[in-house]
Design brief:
One of its GO terms (molecular function) is D-ribulokinase activity. The protein is an alpha/beta fold. The protein folds into two domains: about 10-255, Nucleotidyltransferase, domain 5 (2-Layer Sandwich); about 280-470 and about 520-545, ATPase, nucleotide binding domain (Nucleotidyltransferase, domain 5), CATH 3.30.420. Helices cover about 35% and strands about 20% of the residues. The protein is built from 19 helices and 23 strands. The strands form six sheets. Strands 15-16-14-13-21-22-23 form a seven-stranded mixed beta sheet, sandwiched between helices. Strands 1, 2, 3, 5, 11 and 12 form a six-stranded mixed beta sheet that branches. It has a four-stranded antiparallel beta sheet with strand order 4-7-6-8. Helix 16 links the parallel strand 21 (about 450) and strand 22 (about 475). Helix 17 (about 480-495) packs across helix 18. The longest helix has 29 residues, at about 415-440. It starts with 10 loop residues before the first strand and ends with a helix.
Length: about 550
């Protein structure tokens, strides 16, 4: 639905491709979402750990939702479009036609999803090489990055895919190519997921040592030798064909894209905070961390100089905010974890019955005697698996289960469910504190958290993060901060703003500030001590059981 609009206002379109759906928003120059739409996209799981999508299906969904949000709008007021997407791998042939990434030869299934884990042996091989490029991914490459997936294709689909492939795109770059016909890649995708560095570019020795020397021979044409900063205008804007598909004017600006989490960070981290009595006021943007919390959580911190943080991705130059270095910590499956803990409890039917039409999580939050929490639930730091601080339960994404719950009773009622729910929220917040303290020990100076995403609507989640980290939490006025971030890209590409920083300050809006309750500081400091002991215990346990 559209809100009321003034005829002189400028608009930008943000398109976000998530794992299961594509969303679009029409955003005005002040950062207000005027219209939004969503459409599901298909996922195939032909075998365990294999997740595939169709670039055709994704593009058709992009076109459908974009047409919906711009319907009835004066086209001359729409100034630019920006795309963000998951960091999935798209494969096309030399004529840009979809090429199968599966042994069944199903060409329409030409996308290996970000959460696909088919390349475990390949990433082990890459990590064993201990090449210097791994310094930029916390020392260990993730199976969810692109080099192991490319190596898997070469080793398993040499004739049907590898030799026929013309281009390998990160999904955000595929979308900007589809819109403009230009094969330029975003610095965001290449430095975060492909080992490109902003100062030296591609490292020939890395690709040769891991067995992908083919990519070096053609001067990296297949994976990108024309690189743009996020928000930079791509080519001559929308092609006639893409303009017709999207329902937008031909030639309007298209921005170099971002990974979805980075778009969320862009949508919140640069907001104007004047008058909110925050410690980051009159401080550089480097004093802030953007936390994008939904199915998983990402912690985005920027710095003026490169900071290497053990177990945290980066530093990546200009990967989110041009001119600044990015470090990215994270916790996989946090949202899924909370849902799993609540829905898997024996008292869940009772919760459903008593909550009736109300939100289950809000009902738990408002229970009159919500306990303070003697149960401690440990979030495991899985640095060796994904080079990030991850949750203890990776059932949905990493398919690994490491759990430790201390203090359980034999109770099976609603009170115990509420206690486990609280312990889970606290554990996630303790994990965030661990990430922040690790970043700060390495050289970051952080005093304020900026939250967006679905979990930012959960009041207990927000308050626990404020209390446990001891830092104020800023909530975005627009819940759809990822879409605002994508629209900011389009605004920058249009030339209406001098820089992304200027666009962020004008279009990123603060909704509410949640201050930490310092009366609970001693309690959570003690809780954090227990957390660190449990993390150490889990590492010792894994070392003992390694190989079994």
């Amino acid at each position: 639905m559209h809100s009321k609009k003034h005829t002189s206002v400028k608009y930008y379109v943000g398109v976000d491709v998530g794992s299961a759906s594509v969303r679009a928003a029409l955003v005005d120059e002040f950062g207000t979402v005027a219209a939004h739409a969503e459409q599901p996209i298909q996922i195939w799981e032909p075998q365990p750990d294999h997740y595939e999508q169709s670039s055709t299906d994704i593009w058709e969904a992009c076109c459908a939702v974009t047409k919906k949000v711009v319907c009835g709008i004066d086209a001359s007021r729409i100034r630019g479009v920006g795309f963000d997407a998951t960091c999935s791998l798209v494969v096309v042939d030399k004529q840009f036609q979809p090429l199968a990434v599966n042994s069944e030869g199903q060409n329409h299934r030409n996308v290996i999803m970000w959460m696909d884990h088919r390349a475990v042996s390949q990433v082990d091989h890459i990590n064993a090489m201990q090449h210097r490029v791994l310094n930029y991914v916390g020392g260990v490459m993730s199976v969810e990055m692109q080099p192991p997936k490319l190596l898997w294709i070469k080793e398993n689909l040499q004739e049907s895919c590898w030799e026929k492939a013309g281009y390998f795109f990160d999904l955000p770059d595929f979308l900007s190519w589809k819109a403009t016909g230009v094969t330029a890649r975003s610095l965001c995708t290449l430095v975060c997921k492909w080992t490109y560095t902003s100062d030296e570019g591609w490292d020939d020795s890395f690709w040769k040592i891991i067995g992908l020397e083919d990519l070096v021979k053609d001067k990296y044409e297949k994976i990108g030798n024309h690189v743009l900063s996020p928000g930079e205008s791509v080519g001559k804007g929308l092609t006639p064909e893409a303009a017709k598909d999207l329902g937008l004017p031909e030639g309007i600006a298209v921005a170099a894209s971002l990974i979805d989490a980075h778009a969320g960070g862009l949508g919140v981290i640069g907001a104007d905070v004047k008058g909110h009595n925050l410690p980051c006021e009159n401080q550089p943007i480097t004093s802030r961390v953007a936390m994008i919390c939904g199915t998983s959580s990402c912690h985005m911190g920027v710095s003026e100089t490169p900071i290497f943080v053990p177990g945290v991705w980066g530093p990546y130059f200009s990967a989110m905010v041009p001119g600044l270095w990015l470090n990215e910590g994270g916790q996989s499956a946090t949202g899924k974890l909370i849902e799993h803990v609540v829905r898997g409890h024996v008292a869940f039917p009772e919760l459903q019955s008593k909550a009736a039409s109300r939100s289950l999580f809000l009902f738990l939050y408002h229970m009159p005697d919500l306990p303070t929490g003697d149960v401690h639930l440990n979030l495991l730091q899985q640095e060796t698996i994904e080079s990030k601080v991850l949750p203890w339960l990776d059932l949905y994404i990493l398919f690994l289960i490491f759990a430790q719950v201390v203090g359980l009773t034999l109770s099976r009622g609603l009170d115990e469910l509420a206690l486990i729910y609280l312990a889970t929220i606290q554990a996630i917040a303790l994990g965030t504190r661990h990430i922040l303290e690790t970043m700060q020990a390495a050289g970051h100076h952080i005093n304020t958290l900026f939250l967006c995403g679905g979990l930012s609507k959960n009041p207990l989640f927000v308050q626990m993060h404020a209390d446990i980290t001891g830092k104020p939490v800023v909530l975005s006025k627009e819940v759809e901060s990822v879409l605002v971030g994508a629209a900011i890209l389009g605004a920058c590409a249009s030339g209406d703003f001098a820089s992304i920083q200027e666009a962020m300050a004008k279009m990123g809006k603060i909704g509410r500030v949640v201050q930490p309750n310092h009366e609970h500081k001693r309690f959570y400091d003690k809780k954090y001590e227990v957390f660190l002991k449990l993390v150490e215990h889990q590492r010792e346990y894994r070392a003992i059981m390694k190989g079994f």
